[in-house]
Write a structure and sequence with these properties.
Helix content: 25-40%
Number of helices: 18
Structural class: alpha+beta
Largest sheet: 7 strands, antiparallel
Distance between the termini: 25 Å
Number of strands: 18
């Protein structure tokens, strides 16, 4: 209970711990309108509606530590027309609506804090409109990134945005997700070309127009995959200057403006060759400074991941890999076989100038896979540092020029606070995390976590960065969002929300 009180989250401790039914409007119990559940069943069929407590609790939380808040009912629409009918029904009856994909979020974005209806979109899993010539594909919200890349196998294309979890691609668009490949391929925002959105009242919107694809902003051939990726048959860059950029408005909207029922995504050529290495450094400062220099030297890296010595030790033990317990970078290069050797030489020189050692390049898929499996298991490796304890993940992003100072200050802050918080991050784009492992029964430790996370968010803001680079705002970072945007910025968001969702029915209580 202590952590809930300290973090201002309320309710019982533990993300899988649910209170009794959270009702509509402000969390006080209020039943759904008479015959409302039957009306839902009339749209999608009886088997696709559930009011069972176990099902509601399952849909009342994500992977964060925010208290479970179950919806009043869960529905599974099978087609966009059903989403429209369900939304129109909820709109007429003033019932809150919460979109749900895979539940892998980290900021309480799916918690039904005002009750209402959870729309589980996982059964809408069609992949359509694959155009190899135009490097694009359309996916429904039940399609995950791994499912898409399996579908693309043999085409020579892939979708590179990789947040670690096998998340829904529409969910990734909703949270503005990022990941290990962002330094070369970008985040979700530039990789979403069009969105099919069901608005709160049931109307259908195509953000770039029906059947159209928005412009490709990332124009250099390295980022598009040309040249170094071993292919030159790229489609022409699309440009668009027609009106407001509605697609970008909905990317990162976290389900507060409408249901993303289809995303048209930009695909990239698979690299002809890839190589990954680990490099150990004498200090956190040296490792992060090396990252900045690699980017300044224009080495076309695909991934640069940072792990501090605590994280490396935990990951090595968890994944049974022998790694020195030192601040470490994982660097991955993509390109043609000829260009890869030159890139490796450039990277090695910069690593050694910063005191790095242990370079040994892995080029076979199995070897590379083992290293990235180790990185992707960081959360579970961190939890294993203190068996029986729980985790609380942070997420900030700062300009590359400020990254060394902010990471070093954060490392010192962790030590001074007496917290177990291994650091890991996609430092190639200035994004890093502290995985805070704590005893939920220790109020003093809970207080230290709260004050540390607030300092970290404000440290990022003071450095010209953001309080969240990829996790989203959700429930936990609303106060920091006000500090980041200022009152006028937040007021503008409120006006946009009110224009599209005048009755505040779409995922109420999140972001704003």
């Amino acid at each position: 209970m202590a952590l809930r009180r300290v973090l201002g989250l309320g309710g019982a401790l533990g993300r899988r711990s649910c209170c009794s039914k959270v009702g509509l409007h402000g969390g006080t119990e209020r039943p759904l309108p008479p015959d409302f559940v039957e009306a839902l069943r009339a749209v999608v069929g009886g088997p696709n509606v559930s009011t069972a407590m176990a099902v509601r609790e399952q849909h009342g939380h994500d992977e964060s530590m925010h208290t479970c808040a179950p919806p009043d009912a869960v529905v599974w629409p099978q087609a966009v027309g059903q989403v429209q009918e369900l939304a129109a029904l909820c709109y007429r009856c003033r019932v809150p609506m919460v979109p749900f994909g895979t539940g892998t979020g980290l900021e309480g974005g799916v918690n039904a804090v005002q009750g209402g209806i959870c729309f589980d979109l996982s059964r809408m899993d069609t992949i359509t409109e694959l155009s190899l010539e135009d490097f694009s594909v359309a996916v429904e919200p039940g399609v995950t990134r791994k499912a898409l890349n399996n579908h693309l196998r043999g085409t020579g294309l892939w979708f590179p945005v990789d947040p670690g979890a096998d998340a829904s691609l529409c969910g990734m668009a909703a949270t503005g997700a990022s990941g290990t490949n962002a330094v070369r391929y970008g985040t979700m925002r530039p990789n979403v070309l069009n969105l099919r959105v069901v608005l709160p009242d049931g109307r259908l919107l195509h953000t770039a127009g029906p059947g159209r694809q928005a412009r490709w902003e990332l124009g250099d051939r390295d980022r598009l995959g040309g040249g170094h990726a071993g292919t030159h048959s790229l489609a022409p860059c699309r440009k668009r200057a027609a009106g407001y950029d509605l697609t970008s408005l909905f990317v990162g909207s976290e389900g507060t403006l409408g249901f993303l029922t289809q995303a048209t995504l930009r695909l990239h050529p698979l690299p002809e060759a890839a190589a990954v290495t680990t490099a150990a450094f004498p200090s956190v400062q040296a490792a992060v400074a090396c990252t900045v220099q690699v980017l300044q030297a224009a080495v076309p890296v695909a991934r640069i991941e940072f792990l501090d010595e605590v994280m490396v030790g935990a990951c090595g033990r968890f994944s049974k890999l022998e790694l020195p317990a030192a601040a470490t970078l994982l660097l991955e290069l993509h390109g043609s076989r000829r260009s890869l050797a030159e890139q490796q030489q450039q990277a090695e020189e910069i690593v050694r100038l910063n005191g790095g050692s242990g370079l040994a390049w892995a080029e076979e898929p199995e070897e590379r896979g083992r290293l990235w499996d180790m990185r992707h298991s960081a959360w579970y490796a961190a939890l294993a540092l203190r068996p029986g304890c729980q985790g609380y993940s942070t997420d900030v992003c700062v300009p590359i020029s400020r990254l060394p100072d902010v990471v070093v200050e954060t490392k010192q802050d962790l030590q001074d606070s007496g917290l177990t918080g291994p650091m890991v991050g996609h430092v190639g784009d200035g994004n890093f995390h502290c995985l805070l492992i704590f005893d939920p029964q220790d109020p003093a430790e809970a207080q230290r976590i709260h004050t540390f996370t607030q300092r970290l968010g404000r440290r990022a803001l003071a450095a010209g960065g953001t309080c969240t680079g990829e996790h989203g705002v959700g429930l936990g970072k609303r106060a920091l969002l006000l500090e980041e945007l200022g009152q006028e910025g937040l007021d503008t968001l409120h006006r946009i929300k009110a224009a599209l969702d005048p009755h505040n029915l779409m995922n109420p209580g999140k972001v704003l």
